[in-house]
């Protein structure tokens, strides 16, 4: 049975929690400041995995929590943490996860965001930065993932989480679409599919074990859980994933990395491309056998622009990373830079 491409993308936003978490430490995010984290450090907010809890594990400062926890306030005020996004971009929504915080979660939170050029100091962020509210002061529940949709369309580099007045938050997820500075693209080949370069998963057949967003993360996977893995197929079909590239470009090198997938790597894979959401799909990499736990690299002799790519794996399994190295077309580079200079994201 020949696999068929999915229908054209409708242009509507998917539910924001399916979008990449731009704040993840693994993507380069960092908690650059907080006013207090006496009980549990704020860096826990951006860990990749869900918060863990072991009862009756006490340190010098009390019960050990896998999250951010401040002391009890005895005066007016709020507690805050500033996160530098690993991939600056447009924020579609945030999740304030209070997992395991039951009697010590904040009753209200709010979230602000800012766009700052370069690498600002903490003092610049505190004194000279204009912050935009993206989540008004809102109630949250304890031991719960509290989602908040964001309607902003601007590109942000930093977000500030405020607890009213104090308490604990386990994880802070900032879901959105990466929007890099396109002026960096003119200095050679780069990964057109990478999240940090504006690549975006737009559809996939199956994400039973792990998210396809992992395919576009920076660096090498450190274990099988950092890749994309599907459930076992019991039919004659195959699994696939579709990616919108940073812009219209020409792909010269494809990398399919099955690292850490030993007994569950795909037997083979293909890569196709198309120019525009309604364009015809064309072959980039023909169906090629794959080896387990291996970084496969293929030089592509194809002088054809594309804005989207689709990887099909046969019949199912796991892939650690998908890389599509190339360059933007001159028109795409010019359009992205002009859009950037107009302040559009």
List the keywords.
single chain; about 350 residues; mainly beta; Jelly Rolls; 2 domains; eight-stranded antiparallel beta sheet; seven-stranded antiparallel beta sheet; 2 helices; about 40% strand; disordered N terminus
Task: Explain what you see.
Strands 12, 13, 15, 16, 17, 18, 19 and 21 form an eight-stranded antiparallel β-sheet that branches. Strands 1, 5, 6, 7, 8, 9 and 11 form a seven-stranded antiparallel β-sheet that branches. A two-stranded antiparallel ribbon has the order 2-3. With 345 residues, it is mainly beta. The chain has two domains: 17-178, Galactose-binding domain-like (Jelly Rolls, Sandwich); 181-332, Galactose-binding domain-like (Jelly Rolls), CATH 2.60.120.260. It contains two helices and 21 strands. The chain is globular, with a radius of gyration of 21 Å. Helices cover 5% and strands 40% of the residues. Mean pLDDT is 93; it is low at 1-14. The longest helix has 12 residues, at 330-341. The protein has helices at residues 122-127, 330-341, and strands at residues 30-34, 58-59, 62-63, 68-69, 79-97, 108-114, 132-139, 145-149, 155-164, 168-169, 171-178, 190-191, 200-204, 228-229, 239-257, 268-274, 282-289, 295-299, 306-314, 318-319, 321-328. Residues 28-177, 198-327 form the Allantoicase domain. It comes from Gordonia desulfuricans. Pathway: Nitrogen metabolism; (S)-allantoin degradation; (S)-ureidoglycolate from allantoate (aminidohydrolase route): step 1/1. This is Probable allantoicase. GO terms for molecular function: allantoicase activity.
């Amino acid at each position: 049975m020949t696999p068929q491409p999915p229908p054209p993308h409708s242009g509507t936003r998917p539910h924001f929690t399916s979008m990449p978490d731009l704040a993840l430490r693994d993507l380069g995010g960092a908690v650059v400041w907080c006013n207090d984290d006496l009980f549990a450090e704020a860096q826990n907010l951006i860990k990749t995995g869900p918060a863990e809890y072991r009862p009756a594990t006490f340190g010098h400062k009390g019960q050990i929590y896998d999250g951010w926890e401040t002391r009890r306030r005895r005066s007016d005020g709020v507690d805050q943490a500033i996160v530098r996004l690993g991939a600056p971009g447009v924020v579609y929504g945030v999740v304030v996860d209070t997992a395991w915080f039951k009697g010590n979660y904040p009753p209200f939170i709010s979230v602000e965001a800012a766009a700052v050029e370069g690498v600002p100091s903490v003092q610049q962020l505190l004194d000279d930065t204009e912050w935009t509210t993206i989540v008004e002061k809102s109630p949250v529940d304890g031991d719960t993932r509290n989602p908040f949709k964001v309607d902003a369309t601007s590109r942000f580099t930093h977000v500030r989480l405020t607890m009213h007045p104090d308490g604990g938050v386990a994880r802070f997820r900032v879901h959105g679409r990466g929007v890099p500075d396109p002026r960096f693209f003119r200095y050679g080949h780069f990964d057109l599919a990478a999240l940090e370069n504006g690549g975006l998963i737009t559809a996939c057949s199956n994400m039973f074990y792990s998210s396809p967003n992992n395919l576009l993360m920076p660096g090498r996977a450190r274990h099988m859980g950092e890749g994309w893995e599907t459930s076992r197929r019991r039919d004659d079909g195959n699994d696939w994933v579709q990616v919108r590239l940073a812009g219209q470009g020409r792909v010269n090198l494809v990398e399919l990395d099955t690292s850490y997938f030993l007994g569950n790597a795909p037997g083979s894979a293909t890569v196709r491309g198309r120019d525009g959401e309604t364009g015809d799909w064309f072959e980039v990499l023909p169906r090629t056998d794959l080896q387990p736990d291996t970084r496969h690299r293929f030089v592509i002799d194809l002088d054809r622009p594309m804005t989207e790519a689709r990887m099909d794996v046969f019949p199912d399994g796991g892939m650690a990373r998908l890389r599509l190295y190339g360059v933007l077309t001159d028109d795409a580079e010019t359009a992205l830079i002009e859009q950037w200079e107009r302040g559009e994201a």
